[in-house]
Amino acid sequence: xSYYEPEEWLWDFxxxxxxxxxxxxxxxxxxxxxxxxxxxxxxNGEHTLCRxxxxxxxxxxxxxQAAAVRVFPNPVxxxxxxxxxxxxxxFTLSDALGRLVMQGTLRKGNNAINLGRLPAGLYVYSIVQDxxxxxxxxxxxx
Length: 142
Prior knowledge:
By secondary structure, the protein is an all-beta fold. The chain has no helices and eleven strands. It has a four-stranded antiparallel sheet with strand order 2-1-3-4, with no helix packed on it. The chain has a four-stranded antiparallel sheet with strand order 8-7-10-11, with no helix packed on it. A three-stranded antiparallel sheet has the order 5-6-9, with no helix packed on it. The two termini are 25 Å apart.
């Protein structure tokens, strides 16, 4: 989204750290949801874009087992089912630009989620339980 040959980059990683590198790397010290912003500038002005980034480790109590999350169908038309194997958790859905479009509570078992009002496109879901990122994934809405 950077126009007219940007000359300077300013990254804000949302955790009190930043960088002026064009392509920085950053390591977070804690799991969580962070708003990462990039401001680019040149002699004509500046432009800022922010996106939410979910940092976390997906794990279970049983070593070697996958997290208990299943989303189907994918691609989806109007209604998807999110099968959640954990206790109550928070569910968020963001569009491809990182804008929050839906949120709710997940209960153990099958959770029906109506996506009928959303336009076709790519979406990212996140599941957070007790402040820890449990799972993220992509959904294609037809």
